[in-house]
Design a protein that fits this description.
By secondary structure, the protein is an alpha+beta fold. The protein has 9 helices and 11 strands. The protein is globular and about 55 Å long.
């Protein structure tokens, strides 16, 4: 993808040229023969108009040791860029959140950003994104991580996937979740856009901004929510198509909410469509809570028990751990 503001063009030779474009005061154009002097004037005027129409050059943050190349994404909460690291001699991704009195984000978002950095620093696994660097500027905090030019699983699903590839990626994601959950965390925003692809086909989980610590005692329905973080019971955060029923209702969650999201993703990888849909966010959330688990087509029916164990509405009826879901897949000998 070329950065915004790049324009292609071709040289125009000197002398009389049939088909050159004349520019008048109103900015309209009409073809015709142009003399050398007239052509030069037209070319100058064209350059002026082109320059006026071009957007102003993008202003990037200034971080010593990094040369910013392109904006990947921007929202009210954060910004993500591609930059060249002088120390690593490679492109990296830089995620930052604005701070200070002019920032549109509150202190809660800044605290979540810092929490995400701490979470990533505590996890080590080939399928979990590495942090290369972090720090703060005059009005922002930033995290530097690996850059993934191959894109995300979201793009891979759009291009359709084989059953073999779907199973392979399921195993990789579940393996990463074993590490995350053993650290006492749940991701809470697992979706294809947060699963990046390396060139060799390996996957990497990113965006732990909603990651939440959970107490293993929360696995007992009689226990209270042992999770402690920057969100609270009753607050709904996550992606509508991939959110678990309990998370959609703002209830306490544990690692089983990630297993539900993994089940949604696995169904989508196998079939090319999401298991639950709706014409509005409310309708989608209602489907997660009430719609029956869809049946797989006959050629994929061997995966139905696995899907049922991941997409159960009641967390108590789901696989208790990612390892148990992997064990079920192993028993299928696919």
């Amino acid at each position: 993808m070329q950065p915004a503001g790049w324009v292609g063009g071709r040289a125009i030779g000197p002398g009389r040229q049939t088909g050159w474009m004349r520019f008048n005061a109103s900015g309209s154009r009409r073809p015709g023969n142009v003399s050398t002097i007239g052509g030069a004037h037209a070319m100058r005027e064209a350059k002026i108009k082109t320059a006026v129409r071009q957007p102003p050059p993008q202003r990037f943050p200034a971080i010593p040791g990094y040369r910013f190349l392109q904006t990947i994404a921007r929202s009210q909460k954060s910004e993500v860029y591609v930059a060249y690291s002088e120390e690593l001699a490679q492109n990296v991704a830089i995620k930052l959140v604005r701070t200070g009195p002019q920032a549109s984000t509150g202190r809660g978002e800044e605290a979540r950003f810092e929490r995400e950095r701490e979470v990533l620093m505590s996890l080590r696994h080939p399928a979990i994104v590495d942090v290369y660097d972090w720090g703060r500027g005059s009005d922002f905090r930033y995290i530097v991580t690996e850059y993934f030019p191959s894109g995300s699983l979201e793009l891979r699903i759009r291009n359709l996937m084989t059953v073999r590839d779907s199973v392979d990626i399921f195993v990789q994601i579940a393996g990463a979740l074993v590490v995350v959950h053993n650290a006492g965390l749940c991701h809470r925003d697992l979706k294809p856009a947060n699963v990046m692809m390396r060139a060799d086909g390996r996957v990497v989980l990113i965006d732990f901004g909603l990651a939440k610590a959970w107490d293993r005692g929360a696995m007992d329905p009689a226990s209270s929510d042992g999770a402690t973080d920057l969100t609270h019971a009753g607050e709904v955060r996550g992606s509508p198509y991939y959110i678990s029923p309990e998370q959609a209702q703002g209830e306490p969650v544990d690692q089983r909410c990630d297993l539900y999201s993994l089940g949604v993703m696995f169904y989508e990888m196998l079939t090319g469509r999401r298991p639950f849909a709706g014409k509005s966010v409310i309708a989608i959330l209602h489907a997660h809570r009430s719609a029956p688990i869809p049946r797989l087509p006959d050629e994929l029916a061997r995966f139905q028990n696995l899907i049922d164990g991941l997409l159960a509405k009641d967390p108590a009826e789901r696989f208790p751990t990612a390892a148990s879901a992997l064990a079920e897949l192993a028993r299928m000998k696919v």
